[in-house]
Amino acid sequence: MNKIGMAVAPATGFTRGELTALWNQAYEGYFVPISFDEQRFERHLRRGEVDLALSRVVAIDGVARGISLAGRRHGRAYLAGFGIASAHRRQGLARQLIEAQIRAFSAARIGQAFLEVIEQNAARVLYRQAGFEEARTLDVLEWAFEARAAGIGGALDAAELVAVHDTCSALSRPTWRRELPTVRDALAHEGAVTLGVRRGTEVVGYAVMAPMGDAQGTLFDAAAVDEAAAHDLLDALAIARPGTRWRLVDEPAHSPISNAAIARGATTVIRQIEMALTLKPGNNAPSPT
After folding, report:
1. Is the C-alpha dihedral spanning 158, 255, 214, 21 positive or negative?
2. What angle do CA 96, 97, 99 make, to 5 degrees?
3. Domain boundaries, the chain
4. 42, 47, 98, 192: which has the fewest C-beta neighbours closer than 10 Å?
5. In CATH terms, is domain 6-134 a member of 3.40.630.30?
6. Nearest to 8 by CA among 94, 88, 73, 80
7. Nearest-CA neighbor of 205 among 219, 224, 231?
């Protein structure tokens, strides 16, 4: 490929409309259909705390052809979207873009960056070559079953949610999309509601879900301290919204929620690999492999 007309620049140089159109081009023909209007694209940026100055766009002869969205929280980063427009794939643009993104991470003093990639996606090779290492398996789980017990859950106040989220996070680290800032965003901007289960006075499991009647099977987050608490939480969800087909993303394999849900017939509809990149001070470019 003739690279004379290629340039990589911060995403701040493009309008929201341009970035939305580029996102849709980059995810055309993807394993899971992802198409945004500007409102949904803006929501994606907000929830992922995407920093457009840190994010990168690759252009050919001045026309944007690939996008890398980077979320930022303190000294960590998250690849919140990465792709090349379908007509320009397999031309070396993805490698140029990921290497430019990593240089941007280093310049911004990012110590560690994360991403998730669908298991069968060939981009896993690209990410490995760029220095990302495969950390763990994450599943998208779906289920719909009746309660086995009559346990009743209840809403949690802000302090209770923080406490149980912290406890569960110490047992199984949440992904970026389920860290506390993202969960709080869902509560503040999406009308999300909480459901918790207790063992005595202690909250041992929780779920954060969309309001009734609005994509009610969406779980923004859910976790439990052990499998017994996970079963109690699954019962509470079934009682709260009978007949709902629940969907939980980014669930670590063999977690209490995963083990309990699969034991009761949950289906893994997508399997992803979480990958992590650790940057050393002064590492301005990915090492060749």
Report:
1. positive
2. 70
3. 6-134, 140-272
4. 42
5. yes
6. 94
7. 224
Question: What strands lie across the sheet with 76-84, from one edge to the other?
Answer: 6-10, 56-60, 63-73, 76-84, 112-118, 267-278, 133-143, 246-252, 218-224, 202-209, 193-199
Q: What is the pLDDT of residues 180-215, one digit of tens each?
A: 999 999 999 999 999 999 999 999 999 999 998 766
What is the residue type of 26?
A
- Rounded to whole angstroms, the Cα distance separating 74 from 82 reads 21
Query: Which CA distances in Å does 48 have to 64, 86, 151?
Result: 22, 24, 34
Q: pLDDT per residue over 9-28, tens digit each?
A: 999 999 999 999 999 999 99
Euclidean distance between CA atoms 276 and 116, whole angstroms: 9
Q: What is the pTM of this model?
A: 0.91
The answer to whether domain 6-134 and domain 140-272 are alike in fold is yes
Under CATH, what is the fold of the domain 140-272? Answer: Aminopeptidase (3.40.630)
- Smallest CA-to-CA distance from 126 within 99, 95, 156, 157 is with 95
**Distance, first Cα to last Cα, the chain:** 21
| Strand 6-10, strand 56-60: pairing | antiparallel
